[in-house]
Request: fold
Amino acid sequence: MTDAVKPTKYRLIGLALPRHDALDKVYGQTKYADDFTMPGTLHAKVLRSRYAAARIVSIDTSAAERMPGVHAVLTARDVPRNETTSKFGQTHSAGGFEGLYRVLADKKVRYMGEAVALVAAETPETAAQALRAIDVVYEPQPGVFDPVEALKPDAYRVGEEDTNVVCSYKVRKGDVDAAFARADVVVENEYRVPFGDHVYLEPESGTAWIDEDGVLTIRASTQVIEHFRDVADILRLPHNKVRVIAPMLGGGFGGKEDITVEAYLALLAYRTKRPVKLTYTREESILSHSKRHPYVMRYKTAATADGKLVAMECELISDAGGYPFLSPWVLLYSTVMATGPYKIPNVKVDAHAVLTNNTFTSAYRGFGAPQVCFAYESQMDAVAAQLGLTPLAFRMKNYLHTGDELGTGYALESAVLTDETAERALAALGEPTKPRSPWEKIGRGIASGMQSYGRLVYLHDSSRSFVGFELDGTVVVRCGVQDIGGGQTSSIAQITAEVLGVSMQDVTVYFGDTALTPLAGTTTATRMLYMSGNATLKAARAVRDALVTKAAEMLDASPDRIAMADKTFRVVGDKDHSLSLIEVLEACASDGIPLSNLAQFNAPAREVKESANVEGQIHPDYTFGTHAAEVAVDTVTGQVTVLKLVAAFDVGQAINRLSAEGQLEGGTACGAGYALLEDVKMDRGRTVTCALDTYLVPTAADLPDVTTIMIESGGGMGPFGAKGIGEPSSTSSAPAVTNAVADAIGIRLTRLPVSPERILTALKEGQAKRDDAVSRRVPELA
Amino acid sequence: MGTQEIEIQVNGQPLRATVAVEATLLDVLRNELGVVEVKNGCGQGDCGACTVLLDGDAVNSCLTLAVQADGRQVTTVKGLGSPEAPHPLQESFVAHGAVQCGFCSSGMVLSAASLMKQNPTPTRAEIREAISGNLCRCTGYTKIVDAIEEVANNARLLEERAS
Amino acid sequence: MSLQSYVRPRGLDDALAALADPRTRPLIIAGGTDVIPAMRKMRLGEPQAAGDDDDRPGVVVDLSQLDELRGIGEKDGMLLIGAATTMGAIARHELVKDRAPALAAAAASVGSPLVRNRATVGGNLATASPSADTAPALLAANAVLGLASARQGRREVSITDFFVGYRRTLLQPGEIVAYILLPLSRGLVRGRFEKVGLRNADAISMVCVAVEMELDGRVCREARIGLGAVAAVPVRAFAVEAALKDREIDEAVARECAKLVHEHISPIDDLRASARYRSWVAEAVVARMIIDMACKARS
Reply:
């Protein structure tokens, strides 16, 4: 449900088009990783640690190896290179940020669920039996399970270093102490957010085999096919002997950004010389893959009576879990976006990522921004209340605009329309709903966010795409896009069709194959539309230019007078002379003019200055927007009903209107789940909520319709002025809901999820405080 | 572990398999019979990705033993419609953008079809309830409800015209 | 247990004979929505504990297709429900919605539509989870359960005697629930069910409450209150019921009587909620339901 559709200045861009992959999916024809079968496939299973912290004394695999039907049992000693680093950049490393990645646990385990051994067998049942026959002797260690505890000097050492700190960052701008001293309002709070699971509907899965050319091939549900390099390094194979293919994914959300099954499959396929398949159960997925980082966030925000923010100081502590993975980067994002989309002259941020023996944490939609957004948007409402300003009015006095500097000193270059998104989001809530009973309280809230799109500029990110015409006028695109469901490949088809004057049905996209499609980089960081979209745009334009030049020559006109549309070339103003697309294609082919182009798009690149002090440009650009929510709180049970949800964003330019709305709606739902329901509970490193009946996500009965408002400033750095929205669409959603709850009950909860029990407890404690205050006012009787 | 020979009508085709007594219909469909449009999202009835129609009723195939389906009709999304003969729900899902990663779609469309049979003109609230056993992590459900509602509205129009 | 074979008996007597066969160990399945997840958890977890010495072959006995156990009808002013009737069928049935509304609401709250197409009321009772949603409604209706076995024949028990301990019922080996009988409410009797869960579908109750009250204006002639998820078994709040008897209900009276619910509940801390939360909510929801029902009762 959106604004009325405006006429678009493009033929296809901006339209609400059916996605080309949607048909296959709705007919049940799309094959996901586990749907592929090959004859002779062995079944793999992973033996995982039963302890969160332990020394491994010994591993005896002999009984398992002897079992009939078992083809391989592997432990750390069988891995050619068991230890590498979890690299963030695929083609360029930014030094100092890379953490240890261990394929199989060696002398110790650092989280429950860490892989200890691998088995490949004729059947899944045999593989399961083999796992049970592997005898691992553990010596449990005390472990540490709280990042604040893990910071203490005498804390249990999770890794092999002398500290549990993975990395630290700081931002220093101005003088916060002086600003606090002269401020009229200072609000301090500590916020805590929990582990989260991505719950992509498709659990991790893949198959690996060695092809007829001796190339180790892995087809897996992954957001990063370029892990082929890591797999090659692990097996000590040349990079050109490892191939990764990503079919359509059943969701990713960051949980398939790190290596999941690929290394295990490669090792087993290489050992057995048979195809090997590994598919996680849901329980195994929740137990073993990355989680969203819990944060402890101590915020101190100050403003003057005129409603201007003057200072913000915060300390961020993230729980990195048992291994660093992408924790340093997530922390960096949090650090850069810790202040939110606001002008704050004095800023002090200290951020630390700390190892614990909990499940490792890594990428999750928003990548460190949602956590701080919950904190800073709660602070904004708290400060507003003390100033006597409405949440909207206070924000409007402080939003960043184009040209303003972030806390890191980087001045925003592109469009920044947060003001408009906030006004329109709030207005879209309409008339307040009246309580339906005396026990119901209604509240409304807004939250604005900023979220980067495109990767860190330190990574010198690039993307490549190949666009080419066939002789019959149909088009082939080859691009290493990983399609995780957000319409990544469909957008490429649409952009190509727009530029080349054909229909989307005329474009076939080959994607996600390191052997056959030019590498486009990761499907992460809200970068695909920006990067592969721009690369595709560049390639398509080059093809178009070559054809137009040829047509101009054939029509004896100058190229700038040639119109290419509807598979025809004509000279502008001349009705009589035209050429068909086919004619021009054949002429090019005959004359040795390429009908295709391979283009590379490079994002802005910067060098890391000093790793701890974060300053200057960190990301290529940001997307700004506001969420609004209206909720009903049942004061008897504490349950929350979300009545209304609005997402208002400057998307730059929607490429496929349906896809853009779909991201906004889905992202908003993601945040609502984060706010109210989702909580991976761990008990000393043991995941307690290990299935979908205990880790709860919103069902269709838990959410209202999401109203989307898309502003198209044209000010993005993506194709046709698009901005990325995959992550921005979710970042500010949770605090909009929690601000609405705070509005309803008059109490601010500082921990997620805002569960019925936490709400009821707060209401009762609030009532107790009021009763206490009242009882003290009763005068003593004489 | 005991086995049993069973025959299931899948989308009108009789398919035979020898199955373990404890095997679920989901396991057998995917692993023995190659019916892979039925997805495994959780294996214990919490996500709905494995939804099939069993004698016309929408159920979690992971909560049904394969032996319990012996001699019965199973309809998957492929039995609902195909490119040659699309079901209105499938067309509506595509037209409304209700399909993103698509992993929930096979099951979601069947739950919607089951709803339409019982209640051809549901309200949006009734639609939400009908699909409440089918999780989606991509769409936030809004466009799925839109897609189902359009089919319901068309049914309403046809009803009005007929009366 | 190793499951060797599967039988789908055609008649109730065949089913009961299969359940009484001394050579095999029966695993009863109807909807499978409790049994199959339990099997899965066993399969994925540690192997069967050594204490299980029973090595008779396991037989899955499928009751779901037995027509004698399915269906909803009226018999002598009572509602008669076959134990293998699905939650969906119960929730949709006009007679149930009209004359046993708490049960209809309870059945409608179980799982999701997919689960409700399979899950049976008999299974819900036999699994005897403390948070079984239909139990409070049947307790509030003073339901009678018809049991059947090859050894004991047929017998009827009151639902108030049925649950004997945590996940334990008085069913003997080889004995099943065959039908449920409950009075069709008439006249001044109102029924209501409320479930407090963390979300609106596929949620296990943190607290669930069913109330039936015979109201004469605002005077409560009789009340029956069933609660789930707040003790080892589903319970009746007899003390609350006694306190309400012949009282004129207003908000103060409702709250005063609801306080007595604590005599019957002993909630625990678990993943979903703490004991303290359950205590608060059990009392407050009982009070609210009484207030709502009494204040909105038609004379």
In short: Chain C has a mean pLDDT of 94.
